[in-house]
Structures
1.
Amino acid sequence: MFQNNSEFLDKIREYTKELVKKSELEYSQEDFEKSFLTQSSHTPFNIDAVQKIEYGRVEKEYVTDEYKKIYGLKIKKKAILLTDIMYFIEGEKKIINAIESEFPELNIDEIKAALRVMMIFMRSIECDEILEGE
């Protein structure tokens, strides 16, 4: 027997599809939290964690002088995407060393590969809007 653990991801995909289709985000924090807790336990830690996260918009300027509105998982009421945190973690030697300590069977290249895939996965649930001329 298999159990699908994608309800949270399905909810995020629903947000991105509607965003692309209608050019506006139809979002419910209550539905977001419910979908997260459906596939995880209702521990105080999980409940507290999901209440600090939202799917929303962050405006960013890139070195290419390009501005984007990025819709994705972010810290609630802050312009910090979870991918921003993953980008940081990906290059942080202390974190890589901690993972190496916990999983000694992994080499540094495998750890870096795992972090890259996690970061790319996080990026895959974002939606970009290019802001021309701003």
2.
Amino acid sequence: MRKGIALLITLMFVMLITISIGIGLKQVNQASAYVNGEKFLYQSSVILDDVLNILKNSQELQDINSSSELSVFLSESSIIPFEAQGINVVIEMSSARSRFNVNNLVTGNKQNEKRVESLKQYVSNNMVITTYVDVLLDSMSGIKEDMSYNSDIFNKKPYLFRDYITSYKHLRELNEYYTNYYHEDSLKNIDFEKLFYYSNNDSYRVDLSYATVEVWEMMLGCDKQRAIDLSSDIYESEADIDLSEKETEILTKFNTSIFEAYIYVQLRIIQDNQSANIRFEYDIENKKGSNFVYEI
């Protein structure tokens, strides 16, 4: 009996030690993971600073003064992969004015009715109910004390930011609400990554030399083939664009330009099981980065 009790006590003692060590190791692993996470965050910050410094000191960027020169630069530098000290980094660059800034649906705290109508026509052509655009407008209308919104999105998501649409992640929340509320999945017909840009910059203009097929379709209300044709060239002046008189008139509803010296930079950083995706736009003329989005 005594031997049995002693054995039981010994087993309990071993179990307690095992549990204690297990808890200790778990805390150590958590602390190690935390330290590694902090280290990776710091490394990502250093890499971002290095990329910004490279852009600021790039003579190739400083020499860009036209659409064709920007095109040459982007064709040679669109994807730059490299590895350093076990960290994989990929830099992707493109025009930062190739898409439509969805927040330009509202200008001076008022809806731009002509742009709203063009977007409603575009989503309708893609089998999306036009009230989807009303959901977008609600997300740019600020806080209304009387809750006079076009939809009940803020009843479902009361803490959702509503001054402007901040990012693609923000848009996904709006799209999720729309899909669940209307019980249909037609939003899959639209490639929002090629259609929308997200900025609270009222002076944003679409660079017609880089406008995507989706943007041309939305702005002109034309068919896809016509949009493909228009998006296939680099333009040095408006006269270079083969637009009809009606198309030229329609285009005046939007803020457009022939040459915008801004590049969109995507920085992907991977180390072991950690990754960071940093996106921002870079103003070539003023040598300044802005509109940073971090996903870590």
